Fold this sequence. Notes:
This protein is of the alpha/beta class. It has two domains: 4-74 and 109-186, 3-Layer(aba) Sandwich (Rossmann fold); 192-281. The chain is built from 13 helices and nine strands.
Amino acid sequence: MYSEDSLQASFQNASSYVLDEELAQIVNISMALEMPLLLKGEPGTGKTMLAHAIAESLDMRLLVLNVKSTMKLQDTLYLYDTLTRLNDSRFADSSRDVSNIEDYIKMGKIGQAFQAEKRVVLLIDEIDKADSDFQDDMLDILDQMEFDIIEIDKTIRAVHRPVIIITSNAKKDLSEPFLGRCNFHHIAFPEPEMMQRIIEVHFPNLDQELKTNCIKAFYQMRGFQGIEKKPATRELINWIRALDQDRDFKPQEVKKGRIPYLGVLFKKSGDYELAGNQLPRMRF
């Protein structure tokens, strides 16, 4: 049985996120079915920003769980602060009752999402960093919407089912059971037309010649042979911001293969050198 608020919530758009119809549909059906939405795509395609946009659009609080390879599932649920309790037991001036273990329980991101008084957006970022057991056990918790705190023999049940967005950079395969429990959407790298819409959202008053030249140059540079880490949307936005603030820069310079602030686009030494060598081959 789906909750009333899940059926009524509808994500349309946000001030700084350009949304295509297919993505809007999968977001909204995932909320209606109360299923996690798994987003895949190369870094810089807007997976993380989508969660921010959903929270903004629906006026919900956003909680971000940044997954690390060393993370344990319990870290995402709660932490029993034994060190603070030990210190409090040694000093009489503590305001806490050391016999009350619950005072030393701190909620992790999933625990916070479950206990929130209003429905929240829970972003689980870069799930592919965790091993398959972590992934499957976490989805068990998210299916059941409850977990136990064994130290105090207490069950935490979700007040509201959060909107769950899970991202993966597709660096390794996710387990079949994990995939079976999620809706899925692949966010492809934006085509030039979509990129133009994105740039217009971020720079509504940008010089037309500068915008056109930068986008053309950007896609040519992404196609340079041998580049290991291709510049993403965020690099293009930062590069345009740098050029726009440079009073001495002239938009037509880009057409001549003169690309200032190359280090804003390429973050690895080898890529920086390769790009610099191939700039004279750019054509407009």
